[in-house]
Amino acid sequence: MSADDKSNKPSELKEAEGLLEPEVQVLQQTRAQRFCKFVKDNLFMISTIVGVLLGFILGVAIRAATDPEDRTARFMLWLNMPGDLFIRLLKLTILPLIAANVVVVSANLDPKVNGKISLVSFGYIIVANVGSALIGCVTALLIQPGINRGPANNGTATQTVKIAKLTSSDVFADLLFNIFPDNLVGVALFKTQTVYKLPLKGQLASLGLLGNDTIVEDERSTSNSSSVNMIGVIFCAAVFGMAARTTGEQGRPFIAFFQSLAHVVIKVMRWFLWLTRPASAS
């Protein structure tokens, strides 16, 4: 063996050992370490499954240990409390998250630079939300939930509201009213809905006080139902985002604020998502 071979052998061995070191380290990992890594990487999913199983077991146990008369409304209220609080916290973050992201996205859309991609993306957002609203309105019109339920009687002389008589024209009118709101703060509190009210003359006629030949038509009016006008929120956010983009330097603080708001809300939502376990158990 020559001197050159002897001098090269240590270097070759070092290279071979360097290539084998990662494989050796992998082989040296114990099953416990791999199991801990698997649990850490899938902690959210595993804990959620455990919460569902635990809730199922507790539900069966409570049903077997208590009588139906013992499971009162107050008892069920506190039993469902974790899940109700979880839903409320998610609703708390959905509105600012959507509004902030729509403002940022619409502010960054530049048709001159991005071309058709910007227009298609913005159009997809509008069409998807308008389409979902249309599906919801048409479904409610066809199913008519609560149509067989009698009017609430609170002991006052209030007029009877008949939402079941809505027509397709009313549904599309409500959709347009909700897309173009008249109150920037109100879009987060209520949405417009058409209602038909029986006037006082009609109530008297229904009691037989005006004769049987009296013809009374319901009065059409618009009211505000307590619900978030999500279409109006998206429209306002998109308009303000595009306006901020066109103002140049003066609009950058506005865009930066909503970018920061989006990051903060996402962080808060991630914190709230850890409550999925007790919520799923309830």
Summarize the structure.
This protein is mainly α. It has a domain of 191 residues: Sodium:dicarboxylate symporter (Proton glutamate symport protein, Orthogonal Bundle), CATH 1.10.3860.
Query: What is the H level of CATH, i.e. the homologous superfamily of the domain at 80-147 and 159-281?
Result: Sodium:dicarboxylate symporter
Distance between the termini: 77 Å
> Over all CA atoms, what is the radius of gyration?
31 Å
Using the coordinates above, name the CATH class of the domain at 80-147 and 159-281: Mainly Alpha
Taking all residues together, what is the mean pLDDT?
74
CATH topology of the domain at 80-147 and 159-281: Proton glutamate symport protein
Proportion of residues in extended strands: under 5%
Residue share in helix: 55-70%
N to C succession of SSEs: HHHHHHHHEHEHHH
Largest sheet: 2 strands, antiparallel
Number of helices: 12
Architecture of the domain at 80-147 and 159-281, CATH level 2? Answer: Orthogonal Bundle
Secondary structure class reads: mainly alpha
Strand order of the largest sheet: 1-2
How many individual β-strands?
2
Question: Which overall shape is indicated by the principal axes computed on the Cα atoms?
Answer: flat
Parts with pLDDT < 50 across at least 5 consecutive residues: 150-163
Family: Belongs to the dicarboxylate/amino acid:cation symporter (DAACS) (TC 2.A.23) family.
Organism: Macrostomum lignano
Transmembrane segments: 43-65, 85-107, 119-143
GO molecular function: glutamate:sodium symporter activity; L-glutamate transmembrane transporter activity; neutral L-amino acid transmembrane transporter activity
